[in-house]
Specification:
By secondary structure, the chain is α+β, with helices and mostly antiparallel strands. The protein has 13 helices and eight strands. The strands form two sheets. Strands 1, 2, 5, 6, 7 and 8 form a six-stranded mixed sheet that branches. A two-stranded antiparallel ribbon has the order 3-4. β7 and β8 form a beta hairpin.
Length: 356
């Protein structure tokens, strides 16, 4: 599906005058670029075509944007779809915008301003980490989960942020990633603004909103219906879904599959679902085999591994040759009663929780 063409970008002249980012000759500034002006939540921005569909929105003529199973079950990095996945995707959209408009090669610095809930709870949800990783070209679906925090720490220590196509810019975590606890943008509590400083002193700015479920919308994005899909069995209520099942003699999974075919072929659906299932298994596996404390500075001890080891009752599969496959095989030998099964369910749930 092709997106509509981008409108002309917003180019702001570099403001004069001092601000708290100007005075200290930051230790990582290598090119003596001028400071960026202080941000305000009311600065205008231009509209950027969305690259990820928004939640269902009524359109003219009674049509409605539909959500696929793959919009609901997403592979990504937690803990939050709105505060981690959404900002990550927004950062990717901004670098794509810079590249598409020809600004990337002349970008010398990027600042991120977080507003509302993203600012107030962003630290606990890893919003700052997601922004850095998204700007640096990592993808929440395909990235290597192990070592994410260390890669962010390396960027912060070096004072250099890699953008697309090997282009790097100066980066100071304290000055270039700002939390505005007392400001909220007008459209949604989860607002995020990216501003690029160009080598000629101009600024290019875009605002995005993380509206939940990993969905991102750009400020002033028009709802054109470009993402609307006509489903064979639409249902806005539970009663409508059940009526489709009765009339067509469908089970609920059969009904979902029939609707999913509006987007994908059967082999694509099966491959995608199996990929999600495998990632779920890997997440449980990591959580059951990782000890120590949780990130975040509160020194919370991880409990998933302890519970797992106790339930395994001496069946050790976590040595040097351990794999997900032989761990699953060992799990199948741990037969027990219903209470034992519930303990395993609790262990898996806690393991995933701690991974996120």
């Amino acid at each position: 599906m092709r997106s509509p063409p981008s409108p002309a970008p917003l180019l702001l002249p570099l403001a004069a005058g001092g601000n708290r980012e100007q005075s200290d000759n930051r230790r990582h500034r290598s090119n003596n670029h001028p400071p960026m002006p202080p941000s305000t939540p009311t600065e205008p921005t231009t509209s950027l075509p969305i690259l990820q569909a928004a939640p269902p929105t009524p359109l003219r003529g009674g049509a409605e944007e539909s959500i696929s199973t793959f919009d609901i079950f997403k592979i990504g990095v937690g803990p939050s779809s709105s505060h981690t996945m959404g900002p990550w995707r927004a950062a990717q959209l901004f670098t794509a915008y810079l590249a598409g408009e020809g600004f990337l090669s002349s970008t010398v610095r990027v600042r991120t301003d977080l507003y509302g809930s993203l600012a107030k709870t962003g630290k606990g949800h890893g919003t700052d980490l997601a922004v850095i990783l998204g700007l640096s070209g990592e993808d929440p679906v395909t990235c290597v989960v192990e070592g994410l925090h260390k890669r962010v720490e390396a960027i912060q220590a070096a004072g250099r942020l890699p953008l697309r196509a090997g282009h790097e810019v100066d980066f100071d975590h304290e000055a270039d990633l700002l939390f505005h606890f007392d400001q909220t943008l007008p459209f949604h509590p989860n607002g995020i603004r990216f501003t690029a400083l160009l080598s000629d002193g101009r600024l290019v700015s875009q605002i995005y909103y993380s509206v939940g479920g990993g969905f991102v919308v750009q400020e002033n994005q028009a709802l054109t219906g470009a993402h609307a899909v006509k489903l064979p069995f639409p249902g806005a209520t539970g009663d409508a879904v059940l009526q489709h099942c009765r009339v067509n003699n469908f089970t609920l999974p059969q009904l979902v599959l029939a609707n999913e075919r509006a987007w994908r072929r059967d082999e694509q659906i099966r491959t995608g679902l199996l990929n999600i299932w495998r990632e779920m298994q890997r997440c449980v596996y990591r959580g059951c085999h990782t000890g120590g404390t949780l990130p975040g500075g509160l020194n919370v001890v991880r409990r998933g591994k302890t519970m797992h080891d106790k339930l395994m009752a001496g069946r050790r599969v976590d040595g040097p040759g351990s794999t997900l496959a032989n761990w699953l095989a060992a799990l199948r030998t741990t037969r027990g009663d219903f209470q034992q099964t519930l303990k395993w369910v609790s262990t898996f749930a806690l393991a995933v929780n701690e991974e996120n």
